[in-house]
Amino acid sequence: MKLIHQLSKETGIPIGTIRFYEKSGLFRGETKKEVTTNKYVYYGNDVVEKLRFIQMAKAVGFTLAEIKEVVDAWYKKQLSQNAKIEVLDRKLVQIEEKIKDLKAVKKQIELCKFNIENEVS
Questions:
Q1: What domain count does the chain have?
Q2: pTM score over 0.70
Q3: Cβ(64)–Cβ(24) under 8 Å?
Q4: Is residue 20 pLDDT above 80, yes or no?
Q5: 4 in a structural domain
Q6: Spatial separation of the C-alpha atoms in residues 22 and 16, rounded to whole Å
Q7: Can you tell me whether residue 37 is helix, strand or coil?
Q8: Are 11 and 51 in contact (CB under 8 A)?
Q9: What range does the domain containing 54 cover?
Q10: Among 65, 97, 69, 94, residue whose Cα is nearest residue 84
């Protein structure tokens, strides 16, 4: 069991971010029932693994809402291999759509730039 500062040090995630993730419902710490003199929250190794999963998922473009939908099932191995692939395939489709949109925006900007460069003064 780790305190939040230990969790932060081990994962490299700021304490404020860890608290935000916890408030978002991505995981939960626990207090020790036998200790009544403080309200320290402790986190198990499962939280370290979930934080690493969250970091990886964010790095490849998943939103926190998307991560929240699958983190517990993915972590607890409740998602089949096919279900995991479906999650990733949906994300790939979203990325392809973004690329298409960005290419259209780029083309518009290039056209605008061309028109400005070729204006008759």
A1: 1
A2: no
A3: yes
A4: yes
A5: yes
A6: 10
A7: coil
A8: yes
A9: 1-60
A10: 69
